[in-house]
Amino acid sequence: MTAARRRRLKWTSQFPESMSDSPISHHTGGEPPKKPEDDSAAGAAGAGPAAAADGAKAAAGSDAGAAAGADAPSTEEQKTQMEQAYAQMRRKLRMTQLAEGIKHKVMVLSGKGGVGKSTVATGLALSLARQGLSVGLMDIDITGPNVPKMLGVSGADLQVEEGQIHPVIGPHGVKVISMAFLLEDEDAPVIWRGPIKLGAIQQFIGDVAWGDLDALIIDFPPGTSDEPLTVAQSLPNISGVVVVTTPQDVALLDSRKSINFAKTLKLPCLGVIENMAGYTLRGSGEPNSSISVNGPEGTAIETECDSDGNWQVTLDLFKSGGGESAAEELGVPFLGRLPFDPGIVRGGDDGVHRIVADPECDSAIAFDVVVKNLQAQLPEDSGPGLKII
User: Fold this and answer.
1) Pairing with 99, which of 51, 313, 335, 378 sits 20 to 30 Å away (CA)?
2) Model confidence pLDDT, tens digit, residues 304-338
């Protein structure tokens, strides 16, 4: 494959050539733009080719020739407009064709930040891939993309071939796409207004060569605003929404909004996952003896050693059972609980997910239970595979 056909894609003002209509651009945070000398120049600088033409026409005043030249688009402008229209048409066609290549598409939402949604979305993708399924993971968090770091692929480059972006291959063959791959500097902020972000999301959907997938997992930023709404309206035949929460009431308030978001858009709510549900302490003592453990605020917790002298106690750091209660109250399935596991934290920082590092640990087992319950909720006729968003 020649370099002319397959190119490295990084943060630029536009995607290369055939994706010249891309909204992907970046403000580096350096020198602020210079103030235009007059109003007509300001219009030309701030609003693109059309406004630039209007500004030139106004500045020309009585010069009819200059005004006529500003009104008539150049051959190069016409070519650019045609390329943009063609690229947009192809993107819409590919969005429609996604329904044929991906069996299930699952949106992973949370109404509140800090509940571990990206960690859960990544764990779902890896658990499905461990079953031998072909899985994709789309990181829709434009301003705070963390999925590549969690999977240990943050330094990878995206490649473009024949106008399509090829996702990075992560652990267990998971195909990954994220804004993080486009940043030359991981500390650089993405300073975009809504319409530009939405255009980038549509490119992630329509310009990525996902191929046939059993599952596409889509990880969103917190909330129920532009990003999930754009995907829900752009991606055909979404299998449903998974809501991630922690047990405490503050998180549950916002999780209910995510559930009602799905109901409002008539998307199936596949269920609620309660994350950080408890921290398990383990130890040993005399076989069949009683053990007292100091819990939060010095509360004594009594337990028993088994016949081998082993004991364990689970501390409810963020209360317990809130996710299940909310699911029952709102009439949606409860998919299960995931433990509070310091190994998840270390794995996210090191780029080796807990499921990959220790596939027999409590967290990996809990993810397998959640995925089994999730698969039971998925429709059987939604395409050739499973897509998680």
Assistant:
1) 335
2) 999 998 998 888 877 778 888 888 888 999 999 99
How many domains is the chain partitioned into structurally? 3
The tokens of 386 are what?
């499973």
Asked if the structure places residue 386 within a domain, the reply is no
Q: Is residue 389, in this structure, part of any structural domain at all?
A: no
* Co-location of 146 and 195 in the same domain: yes
CA angle, 329 as apex, 328 and 335 as ends, to 5°?
A: 30
On whether the CB atoms of residues 385 and 239 are closer than 8 A, the answer is no
Asked which of 52, 73, 92 is the last residue of a domain, the reply is 92
φ, ψ (nearest 5 deg) of residue 61: 65, -120
Is residue 201 within 8 Å of residue 227, measured between CB atoms? Answer: yes
Distances in whole angstroms, Cα of residue 222 to Cα of each of 140, 251, 266 = 11, 11, 20
| 3-state SS class at 327 | helix
Helix, strand or coil, per DSSP, at residue 12: coil
pLDDT in tens, 202-251: 888 888 899 999 999 999 998 887 889 889 888 888 999 999 998 877 76
Q: How far is CA 24 from the centre of its chain?
A: 17
Residues of the chain by 3-state class (helix, strand, coil), percent to 5: 40, 20, 40
Give the residue among 213, 273, 219, 200 at the shortest CA–CA distance from 106: 219
Contact 179, 139 (CB under 8 A): yes
* Residue position matching structure tokens 């364990």: 312
Range of the domain at 293: 279-315
The DSSP H or E segment spanning 328 is helix 322-330
pTM higher than 0.90, yes or no?
no
